Amino acid sequence: RTARDDKNIKLSEVSVRLGESFLGKNKLLQAKQEFSKAIKLDPDNRRAHKMLGYVKLMEGLGSLYYIDRIQCLKGDEVGEHRQVAKKHFAAAEGHLKSSVKMAKKENKIESESLLWLANIAVHFKRYEDAVSYAEQGLKHSFYPKRHLLHSVKGWAHFHKREYRKAGEDLRQAIFHENKFCLGRYRLAKVYF
Question: H/E element holding 75?
């Protein structure tokens, strides 16, 4: 590595921290700009890919929320907003996969990125992928959001009509987080 590479790596980390600060203030545009800058400075910055993936995921969810809750859109406008959401989710998926790949090179498990990838896979009705991502994320024994991984895995099984497996995972989700309302709702869907 050259001195310039070292400088770019340090500047990339500064951009990630700045992006995280913007994210904490709910300033997605500025956060996205900083995470993009961090990746340009250091394409191997795992955290920058993870956080840019998260921002793109939030933008996609925001587009869907806009359709359903804010404007109650119908017709052609719905299709346009769904396409925007799809583009955001695809971009998020690319960055999150990069984050997971980089973590594997470091013998680490990027459970949070895998959780977000599993949710994107469920959105795109790629249920096998969702189960696979969740199982990979669950290999990290101390990940504090295990209930979310079990929940998305159970929901993927539900959509595959594998109700026994869905029930098992959703009961695990509730076991790990007793007051997990979404897990309880999904488990009720399995039972009824």
Answer: none
pTM: predicted TM-score of the whole model, two decimal places: 0.90
DSSP letter assigned to residue 133? H
How far is the C-alpha of 172 from the C-alpha of 155, rounded, in Å?
12
In contact, 158 and 186? CB cutoff 8 Å: yes
Q: In which element (H, E) is residue 2 found?
A: none
Q: Residue 111: which of 160, 147, 59 has the closest Cα?
A: 147
pLDDT in tens, 93-131: 999 999 999 999 998 999 999 999 999 999 999 999 999
The Cβ-side half-sphere exposure at 143, using a 13 Å CA radius, reads: 23
Tell me, what amino acid is at 9? I
If one counts every other C-beta atom within 10 angstroms of the C-beta of residue 83, the result is 11
Instruction: Please tell me the distance from the alpha carbon of residue 145 to that of residue 45, in angstroms, as a whole number.
Output: 23
Amino acid letter, residue 71: Q
What is the distance between the alpha carbons of residues 118 and 186, in angstroms, rounded to a whole number?
Answer: 16
Two tokens, residue 10: 């340090």
> Nearest CA to 61 among 123, 154, 130?
123
